[in-house]
Specification:
1 helix, 5-stranded antiparallel beta sheet, 4-stranded antiparallel beta sheet, mainly beta, globular
Length: 289
């Protein structure tokens, strides 16, 4: 059963059964994207050395103005075991581009976007060999790209801008040269996409979070969305909220997640970060055959 088929069985009252929490033996910094390959996990993260400063505001989707300083930092890809032991790490920093986003695995390579830590900026897209932990710069984009997915059914790459507002699609040749690039507005607005993965059936599964202000304080809403990426414009197929929180109110889908179907269950992995460290939280959901 594909991830997409499994996800379509879920609803707002689906019971996420807690399986375990694995403590990691290294500092993760601000976690961004995650994939699982066999018995190993790969995690992208940003180490902030100097925070950005916002000097202007704009929500105009057609406006590509820079509204923040660049700040300083380092981008990382970590490889670790199922028991949380660090195996190796790879730095993916190039000047002001030090913010890795959500990542995905196409069966051979891991794809990692690394952008400047500000909207409407620039990003480099890396192809990672997960065995050798080596990176090749594949192509670049004149925008902040927060996640990257490859659709093997169409041979297109997909990504989204800061907060998932612009949904991009690229056709590339074997050397990473752009044959075409297009984007359109995301029809979904209630969460910012943080991490996305190809889920089969010509669809990608995206997770994210959005913080809302209420009269009694902030409220973080998490969610997962299944999105049809088989046509020119995307279509939202299915959505569920994520309503499980850490003790301090951080929602599980605050950045990285991974999903797999195993032994008749949909397994979901989350790594919400606080104070520069994250643990691996595993849940499962019984599926109907």
């Amino acid at each position: 059963m594909s991830i997409a088929n499994a996800f379509l069985q879920l609803h707002k009252n689906s019971n996420l059964n807690a399986v375990e929490i694995v403590k990691l033996d290294f500092k993760t910094f601000h976690t961004q994207g995650m994939v699982k390959i066999d018995k190993h996990f790969f995690l992208s993260a940003v180490e902030v050395l100097e925070k950005t400063q916002t000097y202007a505001e704009t929500d105009a989707i057609e406006d590509f103005s820079i509204t923040r300083t660049a700040g300083k930092g380092r981008g990382w890809l970590f490889k670790f075991s199922e028991r949380g032991n660090l195996i190796s790490k790879l730095e993916l920093t190039h000047g002001d581009a030090y913010h890795p986003g959500g990542i995905d695995f196409d069966g051979k390579n891991i794809w990692v976007p690394v952008g400047e830590y500000r909207p409407n900026s620039k990003s480099n897209i890396y192809k990672i060999d997960p065995q050798k932990m080596t990176a090749d710069l594949f192509f670049s984009v004149d925008d902040h790209i927060g996640n990257m997915v490859y659709n093997p059914m169409t041979d297109y790459f997909h990504g989204s801008s800061w907060g998932g507002r612009r949904l991009y699609r690229w056709k590339l040749d074997e050397n990473g040269r752009k044959i075409s690039e297009s984007w359109h507005k995301n029809p979904s607005h209630y969460i910012d996409y943080q991490d996305c993965h190809y889920a089969g059936m010509g669809a990608m599964l995206c997770g994210g979070v959005q913080t809302y202000q209420t009269p009694i304080g902030e409220f973080s809403l998490g969610g997962l969305e299944l999105i049809d990426i088989s046509a020119d414009k995307v279509k939202i197929l299915h959505q569920i909220p994520i309503t499980k929180y850490l003790s301090d109110g951080i929602v599980l889908s605050h950045n990285p997640f991974w999903a797999e179907v195993l032994n008749g269950k949909l397994k979901l992995y989350f790594m919400p970060e606080r104070n520069g460290h994250a643990d691996l939280h595993t849940f499962d959901i019984e599926l109907v055959n």
